Amino acid sequence: MAALSDARRITLAEALARFDALPAVTTAEMLGEWRGSGVPTGHDMDGLLETYAWYGKSFLSDEAVHPLVFRTRAGEKYAIDPRLIPLSLSRYHALSRHIVARALFTLATPLLRTRIPRARLRTVTYRGVTTAAMVYDHLPIIDCFRRVDDDTVLGAMDIRGAAPFFFQLERDA
To answer: Residue 93 CB: number of other CB atoms within 10 A?
Structure first.
């Protein structure tokens, strides 16, 4: 299956159909470092994480996951505490992607960083398939995963009260 993040914008219905057609993945298969990219579906969060130099996710064990890993210009990876990010601002598309917002994020980064994992891996049933999922510690969000191939998964961020946000993760060698 082609990389969805490299594709043209697809509809939410198309993304759900592709997700539903993919097989489950185990929590053990998710361990490691993963580079992330959004799948454009018209969601308020499309492109938002990439605007702020999102790297991906780090799955250290079933009990220790860094759900938001970013990268400095020098290439240093660091984790952010997701409960400190106002994701509700994503609906203000222009504002959240404005150069001033990016500058404020850069200035606030030392306060947002964490070494403490802020999520866990679990097996959940989502859209009729039991598969690996990342459960955030402090937010009503569960990222559910399906296998594209041995080194690529498609993720659906299940956000309470909103349509799912789709993203792709590629294993970092």
So the answer is: 14
Q: What is the pLDDT of residues 108-165, one digit of tens each?
A: 676 788 999 999 999 999 999 999 999 999 999 999 999 999 999 999 999 988 899 9
**For residues 95 and 98, what is the distance between their CA atoms, to the nearest angstrom?**
5
**CA 147 to CA 23: how far, in whole Å?**
6
Write down how long the chain is: 173
C-alpha–C-alpha distance, residues 72 and 92, integer Å = 25
Cα separation, 147 vs 155, in Å, equals 9
The pTM score is: 0.86
Q: Domain map of the chain by residue range?
A: 4-171
Fold of 4-171: Lipocalin (2.40.128)
